[in-house]
Amino acid sequence: MPAALIQHPFMSPSALNASNTQAMVHAMLTFELALADVQEALGAVPEGASQRMREHLEAHVFDTQAIAAGIAKGGNAAIPFVKQGRAALPDALKPYWHQGATSQDVVDSALMLLLKPRLKAIDTLLRRCRTAANTLMQAHAATPMVGRTLMQQALPITFGVKVAHWALGLEQGRRRLSPLAENGLPVQFGGAVGVHSGWDSLGLDFMDALAAKLELAPAVLPWHTDRQPIHALSTALDGVAGAAEKLALDVALLTQTEIGEVAEPAEEGMGESSSMPHKRNPVRCALIRGAARQIHGHTTVLLNTAAQPLERGLGEWHAEWAPLIDSTLLLEGALEQTAVVLEGLEVHPEAMQRNLAATGGGIMAEPVSRLLAPVLGQDTAKRISAEAAETARQSGRHYATVLAEHSEVKGHLSLAELERASDPASYLGSSEAQVKRAADWLMSV
């Protein structure tokens, strides 16, 4: 697969480098050496044996191509890896290598070790997004713009409250994911059928000590076919992806030429077209949305692996590995783009004002109807406000002027009263208060 051309551009380059084949082998080795350490500390390995194993294996060059080829026979990377590790040890140490473990212990724990720094990086990016969004939303707490429902102009809101919703979505996702990053990725150690066969209760001591050694969460029990940790992680990643995608979709829609209310941060060559020199495409939004759509697909796969048979999954477990890693790398890439967008978003209040005036003021038909209702009755007020809005749109005249000239309105309300009622800035509801409330919540943790 030409991954560098069609997959990697949606991911974080630094995350890719930290999650490659060598990193997976290193994570599996970290698990095995930590297991030997804790078993020695608990008297199951001769004194000094774990250090000698470390000396032999930390400098050993594992044949990753042979490991990859061996997966086709064993079904996972741990089996050929363990064979290579054992072959590299002297005979006296071989009995203590991979002692009491099974291949799923190695793979699951290695994946947790790979993902833990990635989740910390994602948390850092989300905090960066929170800071940028907070600055942006407070700067535009009172900037009026069109609120749109079903893709049509509805009523005025402020740009600040729109950004507040983006920020809340991302921060809610962060608070859901953060506990998993801090202490929710569990160690896996259960042995062949998850009951530490041959070790009796000492197996649980190994498991707890291994968690502490690897700085992973202690599991209540081995979770070979209890995939709740994977389910929780995948849905949390997907929740953040959905929040980032919402932001990117809104920004992309607002950058349309005819709307032009915002623009992605300018950068040489960014957003250029292969054939149309005038274009400035919202490429960052496209990358965010492309990554998010892939994450949603991966989440579907992971949700469908939640129920696994008996004491070891048959295909379900195997199907988790790539979607889990890819989702994490895709989300980190999407959030790198999201942070840049929030930090450098170009906001055009003059375009927002222009679009508010696109209907000649007809966007204010609802408050005008409320003003007319006590004088003319609710049904008549609604009819007149709608008629005047359509007349203003077709004639290009201001809504208040059309209303003032309406035969049923003359003599009841002045032009000044109608102009005040049709001013979008006078009908922003709780927008500014919502921005303040959102800011207080965002910075509460």
From TrEMBL:
Which Pfam families does the UniProt record give? ADSL_C, Lyase_1
What GO molecular-function term can you cite, just one? lyase activity
Tell me the InterPro entries matching this sequence: AdenyloSucc_lyase_C, Fumarate_lyase_fam, Fumarate_lyase_N, L-Aspartase-like
Which residue ranges does the record assign to the Adenylosuccinate lyase C-terminal domain? 360-439
**What UniProt keywords are attached to this protein's entry?**
Lyase
Q: Which SUPFAM superfamilies match?
A: L-aspartase-like
Question: Mind telling me which Gene3D superfamilies this protein's record contains?
Answer: Fumarase/aspartase (C-terminal domain) (1.10.40.30), Fumarase/aspartase (Central domain) (1.20.200.10)
**Cited PANTHER family:** ADENYLOSUCCINATE LYASE (PTHR43172), ADENYLOSUCCINATE LYASE C-TERMINAL DOMAIN-CONTAINING PROTEIN (PTHR43172:SF2)
Name it. Answer: Adenylosuccinate lyase family protein
Q: Which organism is it from?
A: Vreelandella rituensis
